[in-house]
Amino acid sequence: MTIDDAKIVELPKILDSRGNLSFAENFKQIPFEIKRTYWIYDVPGGENRGGHAYRENEEFIIALSGAFDVIVDDGKQKKTFTLNRSYYGLYVPKGLWRVMENFSTNAFALEFGSSLYDESDYVRDYQQFQKMKNDGKI
Ligand code: TYD
C-alpha cells in the first residue's frame, strides 16, 4: 500500500428544510465490511492521536464535527488530509502509518474499522514500520 491508496470519499448528502442527512454503507461508500466503530473526542489542544500502522485493519474516518488532519505515510512519502465536513470520509487501507493532529475545539472523529480491536495488529514503532515496509512485510 502507498499513500495513493488512501482516498477521500464524498458521502451522500440529503438536504431538506429539516436539516441534512448523510450515510455510509458496507461495501458502498465504505469499501469493507464494518466490524467496529469507535470515536475520538475531547482531544486537548496540541495533542496527537494515532501514531501507528495496522497490519490488517482498514479504516474509514469522518469528522462528524470540527476539524483535524490525518497524515498518512507509506515509509517513503506522506500526505495530509484535512477532514472538516461531515459528508466526507477518508479511507485508510492497511499497512500505512497514520497520525491524527490539529484537532479543533469540539472535533469529533468517527472511525470505522474492518476488524475487531486486536493490539497485535498494531505496529507502534516507526522504525519497525519502515523496516517492515522495506522488507515487504506490511
Ligand atoms: P489507540 O488505538 O492507541 O488510540 P489512537 O490510535 O487514537 O491514538 O487506542 C488507545 C487505547 O484504547 C488503547 O489502550 C487501546 C484501546 N482501544 C480499544 O480498547 N478498542 C478500540 O477499538 C480502540 C481503537 C482502542
Explain this structure to me?
The strands form 3 sheets. Strands 1-9-6-11-4 form a 5-stranded antiparallel beta sheet, with no helix packed on it. It has a 5-stranded antiparallel beta sheet with strand order 8-7-10-5-12. With 138 residues, the protein is mainly beta. The chain is built from 1 helix and 12 strands, in the order E-E-E-E-E-E-E-E-E-E-E-E-H. The chain is globular and about 55 Å long.
Which outline best applies? globular
First CA to last CA: what distance?
Answer: 8 Å
Task: Report strand order across the widest sheet.
Answer: 1-9-6-11-4
Strand-residue proportion = 35-45%
Bound molecules: thymidine-5'-diphosphate
The proportion of residues forming helix, as a percent range, comes to under 10%
Overall average residue pLDDT: 98
Category from helices, strands and their pairing:
mainly beta
Could you give the count of β-strands?
12
- Main sheet? 5 strands, antiparallel
